[in-house]
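Reply to dn_fold:

You asked what the input looked like. This is it:
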Amino acid sequence: MSSLLASLSDNFVYASTAVIALAMLAHAAEWAFRRERRTSGRAEQSAAVRGETSGASTAAAQSSADDSGAGESGGGVAVLEREQAPDGGGVDRADLFARIGVALTILSTGLLGAGVLCRGFAAGRVPWSNLYEFSITGSFVIMVVYLVSLRKLRTNFLGLPLTGFVLVLLTVAISVLYIPVTGLIPALQSYWLVIHVSAACLATGIFTLGAVASALQIFKARYERRVAEGRRTPGGYLAQLPSAQAIDRVAYRLNAFAFPIWTFALIAGAVWAAAAWGRYWGWDPKETWMFITWVCYAAYLHARSTAGWRTKVSGIALMSYAALVFNLVGVNFFISGLHSYAM
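and this is what came back:
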């Protein structure tokens, strides 16, 4: 029975990876059609302006221009109606692919959740005792948090980069980090495994969304600055994102929500260390980098509320996430310590 559940878990994870790849393609198509619609919309506006200019020469022509103005307004409504009607127009295709992308993300999340559950039942324990299990569970958390944030924070603009990130994470988990189902070593046979690691996994998932938003904020702010200075013409993928200020607010809310969860995970880890090794803190590499990550995010939150630092906080957020990733992956691969069993 255990081997059957383990095989089911692997198949669910493979299927989830394939579906999230399709979701990424759907979101890419969504952005392509939105760009096409905006390009054609600008062309129609330019043509309307040229037509209005050539028709205004006499009083009679002015009257005709007024009528033309009404026609132009009506034409704008007609264009909007064409875009909203289900006739295959650009906006319909964009919205259609957006809904397909979200639906595929929901399906992929369900498949991955089933894979995580089967892994746990096959092992007879919580499914996050090694890096492979943490990766698939973390990917599941990332997608759940993203789907929840769609309604709460309007994070539709994160669909393409986030599905791409999860696809890479799952691919690496399957091809590099995978290990067969095993039991727990004595050091992990504690209820603190559930408390400490689940909190760290949840915080990591939320921090991931915040990091993706922070990266987009940096690119969007640079884009807006170059457009304002006349060094770049408007258009492209960045033009379709919300303003840099709006993206910054989303990133801040995500990181601020995850920070106390990470703090709880840090404290729970210290309590677990006292129960397992007889001391709360020993400057083990994993403990040290978890604390460094906490300090980095604390600096981010402080800088976010400090005048003069608001334009630099996205860079601090990305450095904080880099410290988190090194804590989760780099320490296990490059530094030996009491937590080396997490491979």
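The mean pLDDT is 82.
Hope that clears it up.
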